[in-house]
From TrEMBL:
<feature type="transmembrane region" description="Helical">
    <location>
        <begin position="220"/>
        <end position="237"/>
    </location>
</feature>
<feature type="transmembrane region" description="Helical">
    <location>
        <begin position="196"/>
        <end position="214"/>
    </location>
</feature>
<feature type="transmembrane region" description="Helical">
    <location>
        <begin position="153"/>
        <end position="175"/>
    </location>
</feature>
<feature type="transmembrane region" description="Helical">
    <location>
        <begin position="56"/>
        <end position="80"/>
    </location>
</feature>
<keyword id="KW-0813">Transport</keyword>
<comment type="similarity">
    <text>Belongs to the cation diffusion facilitator (CDF) transporter (TC 2.A.4) family.</text>
</comment>
<dbReference type="Pfam" id="PF01545">
    <property type="entry name" value="Cation_efflux"/>
</dbReference>
<dbReference type="GO" id="GO:0016020">
    <property type="term" value="C:membrane"/>
</dbReference>
<keyword id="KW-0472">Membrane</keyword>
<dbReference type="InterPro" id="IPR027469">
    <property type="entry name" value="Cation_efflux_TMD_sf"/>
</dbReference>
<dbReference type="InterPro" id="IPR002524">
    <property type="entry name" value="Cation_efflux"/>
</dbReference>
<dbReference type="InterPro" id="IPR050291">
    <property type="entry name" value="CDF_Transporter"/>
</dbReference>
<dbReference type="Pfam" id="PF16916">
    <property type="entry name" value="ZT_dimer"/>
</dbReference>
<feature type="domain" description="Cation efflux protein cytoplasmic">
    <location>
        <begin position="253"/>
        <end position="314"/>
    </location>
</feature>
<dbReference type="InterPro" id="IPR058533">
    <property type="entry name" value="Cation_efflux_TM"/>
</dbReference>
<keyword id="KW-0812">Transmembrane</keyword>
<dbReference type="GO" id="GO:0008324">
    <property type="term" value="F:monoatomic cation transmembrane transporter activity"/>
</dbReference>
């Protein structure tokens, strides 16, 4: 295949890539074991970039088609929807940059890598959505004060339907891929696109109101769309800030407890977890019988590690340590961080 053809396929996400295989030894002696696995970070970020590229293309085409009808019809409702679709397409840019940066290997400064840049991208996305809401709101209020004749109602209706279909396609795409790679930013953006689709249908309602002889229906719908966008701003900001403050879903700790319950001899004392990008890192303290030999205690931690990765595909690393039963005292032995990757 020609170099240009290969680059095109690579851009679309279908090109071949050499996924690095790495092995690392955990511990020594009887506990020593080696994992040789494909680094899941490469696969997931490639998949994320692929989703973002196609989302951008679909929304850009949708917004361009709607903008033509905005010029023809002078509809402020469609203008608000188009501004939001343009803003939504623009959100692909910070997400794209974030996924690319997340692929960089850890460094002496960023020892966990740059996965957290996805949270920063989420903040940028919230700001973009907020800006689009302010612009759309201003235009809607201005049109309420200074009404203008809305024409080409048939085209206006068609543009609203196109906006709904384009956004729903992007929503399904982003949510599906976001769940595959455990990216909160991508899933949130998918639900955001789904809400956009519903606001696009509101444009059709506005066109119907104008057709029935109520010209203010168009700017009123534009204002309602603006309020919906502000709602998305609040929802997205809350989700992103939760991740940035190391918040996790309640079910995560429940899964850790469930995994620990499957390991005889291990009693969970404490469990903490946080997301770094779309990868989960856990710190776990367990209590075992103090009379157990060190080799047997290590077998328990190995079994627990296996259960954790089995129950939690998004888990990237588990740091397991021994603690006293009352969690008030640590025993001096620490089970080093086991870095495992899942597809």
């Amino acid at each position: 295949m020609s170099g240009l053809g290969a680059r095109i396929l690579d851009w679309l996400g279908f090109g071949s890539r050499d996924h690095a295989v790495h092995g690392h030894d955990h511990g020594s002696g009887a506990h020593g074991h080696t994992h040789g696995v494909i680094d899941a970070t490469i696969a997931t970020t490639d998949r994320g970039i692929w989703a973002i590229k196609w989302s951008f293309v679909i929304l850009a085409i949708t917004a361009a088609m709607q903008m033509v009808v905005v010029v023809l019809s002078s509809s402020v409702a469609l203008l608000a929807d188009t501004i939001h679709n343009i803003g939504d397409a623009t959100t692909a840019i910070p997400l794209w940059i974030a996924f690319i940066l997340a692929r960089r290997k850890p460094s002496p400064t960023f020892t966990y890598g740059l996965g957290r840049v996805e949270d920063l991208a989420g903040i940028v996305i919230v700001v973009i959505i907020l800006f689009s809401a302010i612009v759309a709101g201003y235009e809607a209020i201005e049109r309420l004060i200074n009404p203008r004749l809305v024409t080409h109602l048939g085209w206006l209706t068609a543009a609203g339907i196109v906006g709904f279909l384009g956004n729903e396609a992007v929503a399904v795409f982003r949510i599906r891929v976001g769940r595959e790679i455990n990216s909160a930013a991508l899933v949130a953006d998918g639900y955001h696109a789904r809400t956009d689709g519903l606001t696009s249908l509101a444009v059709v309602i506005g066109a119907l109101g104008v057709w029935l002889g109520f010209p203010l229906a168009d700017p009123i719908v534009g204002l309602l769309i603006t309020l919906a966008i502000f709602g998305i701003v609040w929802q997205s900001a809350r989700s992103v800030l939760t991740r940035m403050l190391d918040g996790i879903e309640p079910g995560v700790i429940g899964e850790i407890r469930h995994a620990a319950a499957h390991v005889p001899g291990a009693r969970l004392v404490d469990a903490k977890a946080r997301w770094i990008g779309h990868r989960l890192h856990a710190d776990i303290a367990i209590a075992v019988e103090e009379s157990l030999p060190v080799s047997e205690a290590k077998k328990i931690t190995t079994a627990l590690e296996a259960e954790l990765f089995e129950h939690m595909p998004a888990l990237a690393a588990a740091n397991i340590r021994f603690a006293s039963a009352d969690a008030g005292h640590r025993h001096g032995h620490a089970h080093g961080e086991h870095d495992g990757h899942r597809h």
